[in-house]
Each structure stands twice: as structure tokens, then as C-alpha cells.
Amino acid sequence: MGNFLKVLLFLVCSAGWAIGQNPAHKSGITFKKLFLDYQSQNGGNITNFKDYRHGYEIGYQRMLTNNVTIAIPLRYGVVNSDSINDFKKRIASLDAQFQYRFETSGKRLTPYVFAGAGGVYEDSGEFNVQLPAGLGFYFRIAPKAYFHWQSEFRYSFTENRNNLQHGLGFTYLLGKSTESALTTEKDKMTKIDSDNDGIADDLDLCPNAFGPKELNGCPDKDGDGVADYEDKCPESKGLKQFMGCPDSDGDGIPDNEDECPNIAGVAKNKGCPEKAADADGDGIPDSEDKCPNDSGNAAAGGCPDKDGDGVADKEDKCPDKPGLKIYYGCPDTDGDGIDDSRDKCPNIAGTVANDGCPEITKEDKKTLEVAMQAVQFQTGSAVLKPESNIVLSQIADIMGRYPDFVMTISGHTDNVGSESANQILSEKRAKACYDFIVKKGVIASRISSTGYGESRPITSNVNEKGRSLNRRVEFNLIPRQ
Asked: Tens digits of per-residue pLDDT, 307-325?
């Protein structure tokens, strides 16, 4: 204990020597209500505020430099801890603490950190050394008066004595600084500070409004470094070169003068982009518009594009259907490389040689050729013989394989009998084949039938062989137009 008192006495004497070396800095006294927490650091819970105990502090402090202050607090209180058997004692302590203040010129709030050493006496005669460290702040309410809050952790060299202490109170500064010690009435008048911003009224451009030193005591509501009385945009943080106004789009024209503050523009257009001539009003400047007098879209170079495929209507071979530029605006529905405007079978892939339709296989072509003679009728009538059913069924199957094709059925006769009778007979025989195929499920609109009588022989009728060849039904499969 004797050694501790010597250390503490040395610190106090050092503070006194420092005070003597810094006569311009003020001293002060502090009064605090304390909240003592021994329990949370010794097995308790820091949130059990009901277990905090009360104490009081009176202290003395002195500034050593503009940022460093020594404080000598004397404290008294009653503490207890659930983790220490029957620990409920009155304590008294005396510390030497050094504070480092983060000075903010012209501001009311001054935060600080501190550390030090102190001795603690307990009412049973026990003594322990503690090392406090923590933080706090001063809030100025008058030139010499402050509200004062401090929180600290205190490390003890005695077991089960670590603790937390929080204090809320009042600090009052004593004495006068070198500057305020001037005795002439004129000098006293110059040190009046009506707005308490730390700048004397004779130097304060705004003596009745709190403001920072760098702005000569004038307020700066938006914090942009331009005093409110000079700031053309006091509610918005801006730039000094624009008298405190922002330039949101960076075009060199402040927002308060910019009619398009969010789009970069030019001064002659009041901050808006230059407006290019656009006769048809489609948003494409005439200099870039291939159809300056007709509203269009950008994809079509400013020209009308009814189907929106990017091909101008004047160049679009299929203006009512979206297509591809490579096909002059026409689609290629079946993807066979032949656009729909040229494709006779647009819904089924085919070949160029067959105008976009699929090639008819050799087998199917052969069936159609054979059918010309294989379809047989009762003599002199349009009644199909049973053997004709096979080949007609095959023709119905062929129609199913070529959905984009249609079929023409034509009936022919020899020259035996009257011409009119032969014409009627050829029509009936073609219609009989038509009816059979429709009954097999082929859509009627895909088939047509007609008769030519004896008008289109394929060989001479001078003998029976020739006449038998002329008596025929032809089946022609052609792409749908």
C-alpha cells in the first residue's frame, strides 16, 4: 500500500508540474452519480441492471495540452457480487486518470478515451490496486459547463475485484484562459460569444447562429463546406464552385439551373441534351432516319415496320408476318431454307428442286403410276371392282404422308360409244375414286376429281390393247398452292 501511495503522489505532483507549465489551460471539478457493477465481471450477467449498485464521485481535472487532461476522481459507494460469499461492502477509491480528448472545433460534443491507476479501500480494511480504462464524452451546455458521461473497465490485482463503472454527471471549468484574462473593457467585449460556438462575436460572421470555425462561425446545414448564407442550395450537399449546389449529372451545370438535372446536357439547352431534328417524331434523328417523314423503329432504320421484324415494310416481302432479314422479312416456318413466300409446302421441310416440298419417294410414284391401270370398274359403269380397293387404300396412305400436297383425280375412256356418254362415264369413275379415298379419312378439300371422256387418249384406239390403255384413272399428287 505504501508503494502505491508513492506512485499516486508522484502522478499528482507530475500533474501539478504540468499545470504549472500550461497556465493557459483551464482546470475543473466534476460531480457524478455512479452505477457500480461488480457482479457481471465475477460470474454474473451484465444485463442484470437491478444488481448494479450506486455511488458518487467528486473530482478535479486539469488540461495538460489541447488534447490531454489529467483527472483525479474520489469515489464512494456500496458494492456486492453473488459470486463472492457475503461480499457487500462500502468502498472508497482515489485514481489518477489521463484522458485523451478528440477535439472538434465548434462542436458541442467532445469524446475521449482514458487510462490510469487507482487504489480502492474496502470498509473491512482491505485494499487493492485497480487499473481503469474506458471512454466518455463531454457535452457543452455553456462555455464552462458540461454534461459528462464515462464508462470504464477496472482491472484489479486482487481476485474477484474486476468491475465495471458508469458515471453520469456535471463538469464545471474553473479559472480563466490566457485569452480571457485580458483586463481592458475593449478586450472583454471582443470575447463575448453569444451563440456559444467558440468564436467571439467580433470575429463571428454569424454571432447569433452556432457554426464551425472554418466557416467563421456560420452554420452549414447540409455540411458541404458552404455557409448557409452563401449557399444557393442549403438543403442539398453540393460543390463550392456552384455556391453549394450539386451537379447530379456532372455536366457542369448546377442542379438549380439545370432543367434536366439527371441527364447530362449543354448550357445553351439549359442543361438538357441537344435536340436533334426529328420530323416524324419517332425518336430517331432525321440525320439517321431512312424514312424521316414516316414514323418507324430503330431496327428498321426509322422506317415503318408493321410486323416489327426489323425489315422496313418497303423492303419486306411478307410485311404482315415477322420474318428474317435474310429472307427479306419472310419467315421460314419449316426451316428448310426456303422462305414461306417461295415455299409451296411451308409447314413441312422440302427441297429447293421441289419448291420447298418434300420429294415424293420412288415407291410412292410407282404406286401412283400403277394405280392408273390397276383401278378397275364393272364394264360400262362406275362401280369399282373389289380388287381396286387395295390400290385406292394405298393412295389414301400416300396422302397421309404428304400433308402439304393435294391430289387431282382425272377419269378417261376410249372412243367406243358416244362422246357424251364417255364424258359422263369418266366423271363418274373419277368421282367413285374420290369418294373411296375421302371415306378413308383424307380431307375432302385436299382432293378434286374431273372427267375428260375420250378427249385425252395416251395411245391409238385402233385395237383393243390401245383402247384398254386409254381406259384409265390418273392420280396426280401436287404441292398445295
From this structure: 888 899 888 889 988 988 8
Per-residue cell: 349: 421441310
Contact 374/384 with Cβ under 8 angstroms?
Answer: no
For residue 215, CA distances in Å to 99, 235, 473 come to: 29, 17, 110
Q: Give 74-128 pLDDT, tens digit per residue.
A: 999 988 755 545 567 899 999 999 999 997 666 789 999 999 999 999 887 689 9
**Which of 116, 149, 174 finishes a domain?**
174
Question: Are 61 and 69 within 8 A, CB to CB?
Answer: yes
Q: Among residues 174, 200, 224, which one ends one of the domains?
A: 174
Distance, CA of 123 to CA of 11 (rounded, Å) = 25
Are 350 and 343 in contact by the 8 Å Cβ rule? The answer is: yes
Buried b (16+ CB within 10 A) or exposed e, 214-235: ebebbbbebebebbbeebebbe
Which CATH number is 469's domain given? 3.30.1330.60
Task: Report phi then psi at 390, rounded to 5.
Answer: -65, -50
- The residues, ordered by sequence, that sit 6+ positions from 407 with a Cβ below 8 Å of its Cβ are 395, 399, 437, 446, 447, 448, 475, 476, 477, 478
**Side-by-side strand order, sheet with 405-412:** 447-451, 405-412, 472-479
pLDDT at 434: 97
Cα–Cα distance for residue pair 9/179, rounded to 1 Å: 31
The rounded Cα 182 to chain-centroid distance in angstroms is 63
151 occurs within a structural domain: yes
Domain limits for position 47: 2-174
The packing angle between helices 419-439 and 388-401, to 10°, is: 60
